[in-house]
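Could you help me review a protein record that somebody else here produced? What it holds is a sequence and that sequence's fold in C-alpha coordinate form. I have pasted the whole thing underneath without changing anything:
=====
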Amino acid sequence: MKKRNWFAMLSFILVFSLLLSACGGGGQSSSGTSPDSGSQSPSTGGGSNQPPQKTADPIVLKMGGIQAVDDLSTQAMYKMSEIVAERTGGAIKIEVYPASQLGDAVSQMEGVQLGTIDAFVDAGSWVSRLVQDKNVESLFFIFEDEEHYRNFLTSDLNIAMEQEFADKQGIVILANNWLRAPRVMVSSKKPILTVEDMKGLKMRVPDIRTYLESVQALGAKPTQVAWGEVYLALRQGVVEAAEGPLDAVYTMKFYEPAPYITLTNHIRDNMVVMMNRNKLESLSQEHQDILFAAAREAGDWYTQEVKNNLDGIVEEMKKSGAQIYETDVAPFVEFMVETAKKLEEEGLWRKGLFEEVQALK
Protein backbone atom coordinates (compact mmCIF):
# COMPACT_ATOMS: atom_id res chain seq x y z
CA MET A 1 0.00 0.00 0.00
CA LYS A 2 2.79 2.36 0.89
CA LYS A 3 4.53 1.44 -2.31
CA ARG A 4 1.46 2.27 -4.35
CA ASN A 5 1.02 5.67 -2.65
CA TRP A 6 4.67 6.52 -3.23
CA PHE A 7 4.35 5.63 -6.93
CA ALA A 8 1.22 7.78 -7.32
CA MET A 9 2.95 10.73 -5.69
CA LEU A 10 5.96 10.34 -7.96
CA SER A 11 3.73 10.30 -11.01
CA PHE A 12 1.94 13.44 -9.86
CA ILE A 13 5.24 15.31 -9.35
CA LEU A 14 6.43 14.29 -12.82
CA VAL A 15 3.24 15.50 -14.56
CA PHE A 16 3.27 18.76 -12.58
CA SER A 17 6.88 19.45 -13.63
CA LEU A 18 6.02 18.92 -17.28
CA LEU A 19 3.12 21.38 -17.04
CA LEU A 20 5.38 24.06 -15.49
CA SER A 21 7.89 23.64 -18.29
CA ALA A 22 5.24 24.11 -20.99
CA CYS A 23 3.64 27.25 -19.47
CA GLY A 24 6.71 29.03 -18.06
CA GLY A 25 7.75 32.68 -19.03
CA GLY A 26 10.95 31.46 -20.72
CA GLY A 27 9.03 29.66 -23.46
CA GLN A 28 10.33 31.57 -26.58
CA SER A 29 11.30 30.07 -29.89
CA SER A 30 14.84 30.39 -31.22
CA SER A 31 13.72 33.05 -33.72
CA GLY A 32 13.06 35.55 -30.91
CA THR A 33 9.28 35.76 -31.58
CA SER A 34 6.66 34.75 -29.14
CA PRO A 35 5.06 31.36 -29.76
CA ASP A 36 1.62 32.85 -30.39
CA SER A 37 2.68 35.58 -32.88
CA GLY A 38 5.04 35.72 -35.82
CA SER A 39 5.08 39.60 -35.92
CA GLN A 40 7.44 41.98 -34.19
CA SER A 41 6.44 44.46 -31.53
CA PRO A 42 5.48 47.93 -32.89
CA SER A 43 8.22 49.46 -30.74
CA THR A 44 10.88 47.93 -32.99
CA GLY A 45 9.70 50.10 -35.90
CA GLY A 46 9.39 47.18 -38.29
CA GLY A 47 6.51 45.34 -39.90
CA SER A 48 3.59 46.41 -42.06
CA ASN A 49 1.24 46.61 -39.07
CA GLN A 50 2.82 49.85 -37.79
CA PRO A 51 0.21 52.66 -37.51
CA PRO A 52 0.62 55.29 -40.33
CA GLN A 53 2.25 58.61 -39.40
CA LYS A 54 -0.30 61.44 -39.06
CA THR A 55 0.28 64.29 -41.56
CA ALA A 56 0.42 67.74 -39.93
CA ASP A 57 -2.69 69.86 -40.48
CA PRO A 58 -2.15 72.74 -42.95
CA ILE A 59 -1.91 76.32 -41.74
CA VAL A 60 -5.17 77.94 -42.87
CA LEU A 61 -5.16 81.64 -43.75
CA LYS A 62 -8.44 83.50 -44.16
CA MET A 63 -8.32 86.10 -46.97
CA GLY A 64 -11.21 88.46 -47.61
CA GLY A 65 -12.24 90.83 -50.39
CA ILE A 66 -15.21 93.00 -51.35
CA GLN A 67 -15.25 92.63 -55.13
CA ALA A 68 -17.71 90.42 -57.03
CA VAL A 69 -17.08 86.68 -57.30
CA ASP A 70 -16.31 86.97 -61.04
CA ASP A 71 -14.12 90.07 -60.70
CA LEU A 72 -10.54 89.64 -61.91
CA SER A 73 -9.23 90.60 -58.47
CA THR A 74 -11.13 87.69 -56.95
CA GLN A 75 -9.72 85.37 -59.60
CA ALA A 76 -6.25 86.69 -58.74
CA MET A 77 -6.85 85.90 -55.07
CA TYR A 78 -7.62 82.30 -56.00
CA LYS A 79 -4.51 82.24 -58.18
CA MET A 80 -2.38 83.39 -55.27
CA SER A 81 -3.97 80.68 -53.12
CA GLU A 82 -3.08 78.02 -55.70
CA ILE A 83 0.54 79.19 -55.98
CA VAL A 84 0.98 79.14 -52.21
CA ALA A 85 -0.56 75.67 -51.86
CA GLU A 86 1.68 74.29 -54.60
CA ARG A 87 4.93 75.82 -53.38
CA THR A 88 4.38 74.92 -49.74
CA GLY A 89 3.35 71.37 -50.61
CA GLY A 90 -0.06 72.01 -49.07
CA ALA A 91 1.43 73.23 -45.78
CA ILE A 92 -0.42 76.56 -46.17
CA LYS A 93 -4.00 76.80 -47.35
CA ILE A 94 -5.53 80.19 -48.20
CA GLU A 95 -9.31 80.33 -47.97
CA VAL A 96 -10.75 83.10 -50.17
CA TYR A 97 -13.90 85.01 -49.13
CA PRO A 98 -14.93 87.52 -51.86
CA ALA A 99 -18.00 89.75 -52.25
CA SER A 100 -17.92 91.22 -48.72
CA GLN A 101 -18.59 87.84 -47.08
CA LEU A 102 -16.40 88.91 -44.14
CA GLY A 103 -17.85 92.43 -43.97
CA ASP A 104 -17.27 95.75 -45.71
CA ALA A 105 -13.78 97.08 -46.40
CA VAL A 106 -13.45 98.99 -43.15
CA SER A 107 -14.55 95.97 -41.09
CA GLN A 108 -12.13 93.67 -42.88
CA MET A 109 -9.20 96.04 -42.43
CA GLU A 110 -9.98 96.20 -38.73
CA GLY A 111 -10.15 92.40 -38.72
CA VAL A 112 -6.67 92.16 -40.22
CA GLN A 113 -5.38 94.66 -37.67
CA LEU A 114 -6.88 92.63 -34.81
CA GLY A 115 -5.88 89.29 -36.30
CA THR A 116 -9.41 87.91 -36.69
CA ILE A 117 -8.85 87.98 -40.47
CA ASP A 118 -5.42 87.04 -41.79
CA ALA A 119 -5.43 88.98 -45.06
CA PHE A 120 -7.51 91.43 -47.07
CA VAL A 121 -7.24 92.41 -50.74
CA ASP A 122 -8.63 95.68 -52.05
CA ALA A 123 -7.76 99.27 -52.95
CA GLY A 124 -4.52 100.66 -51.60
CA SER A 125 -6.38 103.87 -50.83
CA TRP A 126 -7.92 102.17 -47.78
CA VAL A 127 -4.50 102.44 -46.14
CA SER A 128 -5.14 106.20 -45.86
CA ARG A 129 -7.53 105.48 -42.98
CA LEU A 130 -4.51 104.47 -40.88
CA VAL A 131 -1.56 106.24 -42.54
CA GLN A 132 -2.28 109.94 -42.96
CA ASP A 133 0.12 110.71 -45.80
CA LYS A 134 -1.55 108.01 -47.92
CA ASN A 135 -4.49 110.40 -48.35
CA VAL A 136 -2.57 112.24 -51.03
CA GLU A 137 -2.82 109.40 -53.57
CA SER A 138 -6.64 109.41 -53.49
CA LEU A 139 -6.94 113.03 -54.58
CA PHE A 140 -8.73 113.12 -57.93
CA PHE A 141 -6.40 113.71 -60.91
CA ILE A 142 -3.19 113.67 -58.86
CA PHE A 143 -1.58 111.19 -61.27
CA GLU A 144 -1.14 112.16 -64.89
CA ASP A 145 -0.96 108.61 -66.26
CA GLU A 146 -0.03 105.02 -65.38
CA GLU A 147 3.71 105.67 -65.58
CA HIS A 148 3.40 108.52 -63.07
CA TYR A 149 1.45 106.21 -60.75
CA ARG A 150 3.97 103.37 -61.08
CA ASN A 151 6.77 105.82 -60.25
CA PHE A 152 4.92 106.70 -57.06
CA LEU A 153 4.35 103.07 -56.03
CA THR A 154 8.07 102.27 -56.26
CA SER A 155 9.21 105.59 -54.77
CA ASP A 156 10.78 106.12 -51.35
CA LEU A 157 7.67 108.16 -50.50
CA ASN A 158 5.36 105.17 -50.82
CA ILE A 159 7.83 102.70 -49.33
CA ALA A 160 7.98 104.85 -46.18
CA MET A 161 4.18 104.94 -45.97
CA GLU A 162 3.93 101.16 -46.26
CA GLN A 163 6.62 100.74 -43.60
CA GLU A 164 4.66 103.00 -41.27
CA PHE A 165 1.59 100.86 -41.94
CA ALA A 166 3.51 97.77 -40.81
CA ASP A 167 5.29 99.36 -37.84
CA LYS A 168 2.40 101.33 -36.35
CA GLN A 169 -0.68 99.39 -37.45
CA GLY A 170 0.65 95.83 -37.61
CA ILE A 171 -0.34 95.24 -41.23
CA VAL A 172 2.18 94.23 -43.89
CA ILE A 173 1.58 94.85 -47.60
CA LEU A 174 2.68 91.69 -49.40
CA ALA A 175 2.23 93.24 -52.86
CA ASN A 176 1.07 96.56 -54.33
CA ASN A 177 1.45 95.72 -58.03
CA TRP A 178 -2.20 94.76 -58.69
CA LEU A 179 -2.92 97.75 -60.96
CA ARG A 180 -6.61 98.37 -61.53
CA ALA A 181 -8.32 99.96 -64.49
CA PRO A 182 -8.49 103.76 -64.16
CA ARG A 183 -11.49 104.97 -62.20
CA VAL A 184 -14.41 106.45 -64.15
CA MET A 185 -17.67 108.20 -63.30
CA VAL A 186 -21.14 106.75 -63.83
CA SER A 187 -24.45 108.61 -63.65
CA SER A 188 -28.10 107.62 -63.74
CA LYS A 189 -29.31 111.06 -64.89
CA LYS A 190 -26.98 112.46 -67.54
CA PRO A 191 -23.35 112.16 -68.68
CA ILE A 192 -20.75 114.02 -66.62
CA LEU A 193 -18.79 116.03 -69.17
CA THR A 194 -18.03 119.28 -67.33
CA VAL A 195 -17.50 120.46 -63.78
CA GLU A 196 -20.90 122.11 -64.09
CA ASP A 197 -22.48 118.66 -64.55
CA MET A 198 -21.25 117.75 -61.07
CA LYS A 199 -23.12 120.54 -59.33
CA GLY A 200 -25.56 119.18 -56.76
CA LEU A 201 -25.16 115.60 -57.94
CA LYS A 202 -25.53 113.00 -55.18
CA MET A 203 -22.41 110.91 -55.69
CA ARG A 204 -21.38 107.80 -53.82
CA VAL A 205 -17.97 107.90 -52.13
CA PRO A 206 -16.16 105.38 -49.91
CA ASP A 207 -15.31 106.14 -46.30
CA ILE A 208 -12.07 107.86 -47.34
CA ARG A 209 -11.73 111.57 -46.67
CA THR A 210 -9.85 112.51 -49.85
CA TYR A 211 -12.64 111.05 -52.01
CA LEU A 212 -15.19 113.07 -50.08
CA GLU A 213 -13.13 116.27 -50.37
CA SER A 214 -12.53 115.76 -54.11
CA VAL A 215 -16.20 115.21 -54.92
CA GLN A 216 -17.20 118.15 -52.75
CA ALA A 217 -14.64 120.43 -54.42
CA LEU A 218 -16.22 119.62 -57.80
CA GLY A 219 -19.63 120.72 -56.53
CA ALA A 220 -21.28 117.33 -55.99
CA LYS A 221 -22.87 116.05 -52.78
CA PRO A 222 -20.76 113.13 -51.48
CA THR A 223 -22.74 110.28 -49.94
CA GLN A 224 -21.02 107.39 -48.21
CA VAL A 225 -22.30 103.97 -49.29
CA ALA A 226 -20.60 100.59 -48.82
CA TRP A 227 -19.27 99.15 -52.08
CA GLY A 228 -21.54 96.13 -51.99
CA GLU A 229 -24.60 98.40 -51.67
CA VAL A 230 -23.82 100.83 -54.51
CA TYR A 231 -25.87 99.02 -57.17
CA LEU A 232 -29.01 99.17 -55.04
CA ALA A 233 -28.32 102.78 -54.02
CA LEU A 234 -28.13 103.75 -57.71
CA ARG A 235 -31.24 101.73 -58.54
CA GLN A 236 -33.29 103.26 -55.73
CA GLY A 237 -32.04 106.82 -56.26
CA VAL A 238 -30.22 107.06 -52.93
CA VAL A 239 -27.33 108.32 -55.05
CA GLU A 240 -27.40 109.58 -58.64
CA ALA A 241 -23.78 108.90 -59.50
CA ALA A 242 -20.79 106.84 -58.46
CA GLU A 243 -17.23 106.21 -59.52
CA GLY A 244 -14.98 103.18 -59.68
CA PRO A 245 -12.53 101.18 -61.78
CA LEU A 246 -13.91 100.63 -65.27
CA ASP A 247 -13.76 96.84 -64.99
CA ALA A 248 -15.49 96.90 -61.60
CA VAL A 249 -18.28 99.05 -63.06
CA TYR A 250 -18.88 96.08 -65.33
CA THR A 251 -18.60 93.23 -62.81
CA MET A 252 -20.69 95.12 -60.22
CA LYS A 253 -23.19 95.99 -62.99
CA PHE A 254 -23.33 99.69 -62.08
CA TYR A 255 -23.93 100.45 -65.77
CA GLU A 256 -27.46 99.03 -65.49
CA PRO A 257 -28.94 101.70 -63.17
CA ALA A 258 -26.33 104.29 -64.24
CA PRO A 259 -25.75 103.89 -68.00
CA TYR A 260 -23.85 107.16 -68.55
CA ILE A 261 -20.13 106.35 -68.19
CA THR A 262 -17.46 109.05 -68.49
CA LEU A 263 -13.82 107.97 -68.89
CA THR A 264 -12.41 110.60 -66.54
CA ASN A 265 -9.53 108.39 -65.29
CA HIS A 266 -9.58 110.61 -62.22
CA ILE A 267 -7.79 108.08 -60.00
CA ARG A 268 -5.02 105.62 -60.79
CA ASP A 269 -5.64 102.86 -58.34
CA ASN A 270 -4.29 99.52 -57.22
CA MET A 271 -5.26 96.54 -55.14
CA VAL A 272 -2.92 95.64 -52.29
CA VAL A 273 -2.55 92.38 -50.40
CA MET A 274 -2.59 93.25 -46.70
CA MET A 275 -1.66 90.69 -44.03
CA ASN A 276 -1.57 90.71 -40.25
CA ARG A 277 2.08 91.19 -39.30
CA ASN A 278 2.05 88.83 -36.30
CA LYS A 279 0.52 86.05 -38.37
CA LEU A 280 3.05 86.55 -41.14
CA GLU A 281 5.99 86.53 -38.76
CA SER A 282 4.71 83.37 -37.04
CA LEU A 283 5.49 81.49 -40.27
CA SER A 284 8.89 80.18 -41.32
CA GLN A 285 11.06 82.49 -43.42
CA GLU A 286 10.60 80.13 -46.37
CA HIS A 287 6.82 80.36 -46.14
CA GLN A 288 6.95 84.15 -45.74
CA ASP A 289 9.03 84.41 -48.91
CA ILE A 290 6.54 82.21 -50.77
CA LEU A 291 3.64 84.45 -49.70
CA PHE A 292 5.42 87.60 -50.90
CA ALA A 293 6.34 86.00 -54.23
CA ALA A 294 2.87 84.52 -54.80
CA ALA A 295 1.19 87.88 -54.09
CA ARG A 296 3.41 89.62 -56.64
CA GLU A 297 2.94 86.93 -59.29
CA ALA A 298 -0.83 87.08 -58.85
CA GLY A 299 -0.55 90.88 -59.16
CA ASP A 300 1.34 90.64 -62.45
CA TRP A 301 -1.32 88.27 -63.79
CA TYR A 302 -4.14 90.54 -62.59
CA THR A 303 -2.66 93.71 -64.10
CA GLN A 304 -2.21 92.10 -67.50
CA GLU A 305 -5.67 90.53 -67.48
CA VAL A 306 -7.27 93.88 -66.65
CA LYS A 307 -5.63 95.42 -69.70
CA ASN A 308 -6.54 92.45 -71.90
CA ASN A 309 -10.19 92.65 -70.93
CA LEU A 310 -10.93 96.38 -71.01
CA ASP A 311 -11.92 96.67 -74.67
CA GLY A 312 -14.22 93.68 -74.40
CA ILE A 313 -15.80 95.04 -71.23
CA VAL A 314 -16.58 98.37 -72.88
CA GLU A 315 -18.22 96.59 -75.84
CA GLU A 316 -20.30 94.39 -73.54
CA MET A 317 -21.59 97.41 -71.63
CA LYS A 318 -22.44 99.20 -74.88
CA LYS A 319 -24.44 96.17 -76.02
CA SER A 320 -26.42 96.41 -72.78
CA GLY A 321 -27.29 100.06 -73.38
CA ALA A 322 -24.46 101.89 -71.64
CA GLN A 323 -23.19 105.10 -73.23
CA ILE A 324 -19.45 105.76 -73.03
CA TYR A 325 -18.07 109.32 -73.06
CA GLU A 326 -14.67 111.01 -73.02
CA THR A 327 -14.13 114.59 -71.94
CA ASP A 328 -11.47 117.25 -71.39
CA VAL A 329 -10.39 116.86 -67.77
CA ALA A 330 -8.20 120.01 -67.60
CA PRO A 331 -10.91 122.08 -65.84
CA PHE A 332 -11.36 119.29 -63.27
CA VAL A 333 -7.60 119.20 -62.64
CA GLU A 334 -7.54 122.95 -61.90
CA PHE A 335 -10.08 122.48 -59.12
CA MET A 336 -7.98 119.68 -57.62
CA VAL A 337 -4.78 121.72 -57.48
CA GLU A 338 -6.55 124.28 -55.31
CA THR A 339 -8.09 121.51 -53.22
CA ALA A 340 -4.65 119.97 -52.68
CA LYS A 341 -3.32 123.25 -51.29
CA LYS A 342 -6.29 123.54 -48.94
CA LEU A 343 -6.00 119.97 -47.63
CA GLU A 344 -2.27 120.29 -47.13
CA GLU A 345 -2.78 123.44 -45.11
CA GLU A 346 -5.35 121.59 -43.00
CA GLY A 347 -2.79 118.85 -42.30
CA LEU A 348 -4.43 115.96 -44.15
CA TRP A 349 -0.90 115.05 -45.26
CA ARG A 350 2.47 116.63 -44.51
CA LYS A 351 3.41 119.89 -46.18
CA GLY A 352 5.22 119.62 -49.49
CA LEU A 353 4.03 116.05 -50.19
CA PHE A 354 1.71 117.01 -53.06
CA GLU A 355 4.58 118.69 -54.94
CA GLU A 356 6.87 115.73 -54.24
CA VAL A 357 4.33 113.41 -55.83
CA GLN A 358 3.97 115.72 -58.82
CA ALA A 359 7.74 115.67 -59.28
CA LEU A 360 7.60 111.90 -59.93
CA LYS A 361 6.08 112.39 -63.42
Q: What stands out?
A: DSSP finds twelve helices and eleven strands in the chain.
